[in-house]
Predict the 3D structure of the following.
Amino acid sequence: MINRRQFLAGMSALTLVGGRARAGDAAAVLAPLRQGYLRRIGAIKAQGVLPIIDIESSYNPYRIDVPSFVRGMDDNGIAVMALSVDMPGKAYSETNRWSDHCLDLVRDYPDHFLPVGNGGVHPAWTKSPQQFLEDQDAALATGRYALMGEFEFRHYPSPRQVERGELFRDVNIPIDGPLGEHLFATAQHTGLAFQIHYEIEDVLLPPLETMLARYPGAKVIWCHFAQIRYGGRALSYGPDYLRGLLERFPNLYVDTAFGGPDGVYQLSGERHAHYWAERDGWRRVIAAHPYRFLAALDIGGDRMDRLNSWSRNLRDFLGDLPSALAEIVAYKSAWKLLYGEDLPI
């Protein structure tokens, strides 16, 4: 396993280029971590467990028991996580807007975590979005991040928030507006991928297509594969549509964090994980473009205790795929996205 001194020395040698950090090269940023990730993936495989690289989860840096969480990763065969900081409302202020806490995770557990930027969520993204983007630009310029966090453009209240009566998280930011333009341009300039929470609805699809076409170098990870919370608002979306989208836009990726077959979104009363209702059609899309689908858990600050159950849910989905395809989605596709190479193991 790589030790902390080796990691810090490697990062220092990498980032000090002409007195300024090198930004925008995920593979280069991740180079000092590569062997540790490989050893961890190999060790999990040797136990007869399918390793998982989680491309999309988040946490509250003020409320996490890191050693306990790492043990949970070990217990569930989660090899590496993109665990992004979501600055909580009570901690967010004009002088406390961005957190580098994820880099502390990478320093302390360099085999377990990816250096990922903060999430574009409430309140930073909803109250001061332009400032958030400028803070992110400054952070990315240090050359210490290999991936951006998840940005909420269209987001209904989560099931847990509905249960708590917290309906403020009804976010609607035009993806083709000034904020989207800034984010896509940053992604195209730096080469770093970012994630979007973008509800699947007919009226939202053309703006997304416009941005994917306008910024072909922006690597976009669309979170929550086939998750539709209001079916009547997404009549044009299905396996054929998504397959066509992936064929037209090679810069688009899809993460596979979605619920089980019986999950119901309370506000619509509908089962929102549409994968399970049309499994054969969706499996054909994945088989046609396997390296565009990425395993994800969607762990968050209000559900840090659900690592076991949500890992089982993800494995239920992966177990529904042929084994070779499941291996690609579970960890090989994320590796190729981040390192630009096929995983050697």
User: Anything to note?
Assistant: The CA atoms of residues 27 and 340 lie 7 Å apart. The chain has 14 helices and ten strands. The first strand starts at residue 52 and ends at 59.
